[in-house]
């Protein structure tokens, strides 16, 4: 073995040794029951795991420094400020002639729907405005009643399309002309771009993602929380014709989940919790192939597939997706925007920048946690210009002139994103409570009295608030908590995670630490701007969680920070790509095969860990923490099948008890209200409302549970001496409930079960 081979073998040994140390460190930490940094000292295990992580990181950095550039570990260098060498030159999209007219028409159309028409329309009518406006609140600020109008939507859509058409670059070729540039290259290499092994790998990854997200979906999660019922009620309104641009109930929610679920119901799926869950799984599964596209743009096809596999197996992604909230939109749009951003920066294509603007604007309709992506895009543009200036010995003035097309394209993308988000911006101008959820998490309930949007975004107050924020010790405490959410700290919300568990399982947590080291070394040693961008984007994408200064119990928050998932997945994939590359460099095809076998073993381990985390630990914690309303729904279903009527079903309420709306929603009747509740705030006199039912001759069902169950059953026995009391089939022994069935009274015209009244005689 010569010196070069010995060096390569030693480097591979360092890579494997660092990986094993990182896995051991994360395993030591994961054995701690609860590792939140804000809790009392969790013991020496955390410190021991951290120490081993430091050793692993040092060994990994040394190995990376010794490892030469290898194959597709990283994408080939590009020259984004110059014309791509493999593409035909774009036609300059100068705003002249037809393009200028198209641009002005588009801008005028969007401004008409969002600014001009609200000033001119008659009160109570939307006209061509994108929203309808109230009659009783004239003047500034205009207060819309949050109803989208079809004329306004059409005008807004046409105007936005006109602006995009005016700004887009001409990339086509004359009919009959042979392909040139990139088109010729694609035509020549098309059969080799998707070899069978990549198709098989992609199919396996997608199948695993689908299984983990759809398996046992009807029973996990089983019971609805109050948030789920609120969303289903809003979905019912959308099905019935409501067209909000922002749902202002329950502190405000973006609309995409509601329209998607309503669309699925219109296609024939049943209205209810299952369809609500299924819609979010479609979004979650669709994020996985997008992750491949983004990862490939960042560091090559190998990293793309590995990142997609990591995302498919990540418990963080599975938990927030199957929770059936709108959270899954955040990683979806973050991944889409990341792919468009890397493509735009690496090719300089105007159309890629326009796609970035569309993705950025559309993501604002998904989930609040996506909003920091605008910061990431702005940061990426600035860093990319600085990187381009750093690349060579050019003068600063020359570099700025070279960067002018980049800045112009970025401005076009920003304009398109504003146009796409125009309805939401219009709503935010009308109603400053659009920011209520964010501001109340930062400043508490006193932020409820909100100033107009102009006051919130004025430059001087923003600067002052930023300085005050950076001097607030709560901000830095929350930052530490959020930065450790994938490895060390835990989300306290039972709907997002089992208690004491970080966002990633043991193998993923270890890979993330090594991935961060990889990105840092590549950015410093190889000036790999894409790896540096991925690493630098993580803290901004955690801001939605970090900024909950008034509610430290909510930090970290896996849902609000879900926009960071694509960046985390790429970081986890980088060490696996380095492992394969170092084995290939040291031992050739045999080493590469052995490395892929080790990667497969790690993925199998991730799958086992994730399955146990979600289908065992998460299920147990969710069932223990949620109300067992599904047990009551099963009893009601039997009662209805036996001839009972839903309007004869009653729930005797108690403080912090079952959400009665679940029963009506489960049977497609959101307006059902069989809750018995008295005047006492704690519901102690709720059963007294049954006095009104004594004269009812029909069969009745009462569901009784809670701390006053025994007294309530005794009261119902006194009212209905013939009532049949039975314990309900509760899935958990610590959540018992009882059924009280009052038989029909034929003497007063009541019907026995399954008795059909005779047709009246002619």
Task: Please explain how this structure is put together.
This protein folds into 3 domains: 98-167, no CATH class; 194-624, no CATH class; 629-748. 59% of the residues lie in helices and 4% in strands. It has 27 helices and 7 strands. It has helices at 3-30, 44-66, 98-120, 150-167, 181-193, 196-214, 226-239, 256-266, 273-299, 301-313, 315-322, 329-347, 350-363, 373-391, 396-420, 422-430, 436-443, 453-457, 459-470, 473-483, 506-525, 529-541, 543-546, 565-625, 629-641, 661-666, 709-719; strands spanning 131-133, 144-148, 649-652, 675-676, 700-705, 724-727, 737-742. The strands form 2 sheets. It has a 5-stranded mixed β-sheet with strand order 4-3-5-7-6, with helices on both faces. Helix 9 packs antiparallel against helix 10 and helix 10 packs parallel to helix 24 (565-625). The model is unreliable at 34-40, 79-92, 184-192, 452-460 and 755-762 (pLDDT under 50).
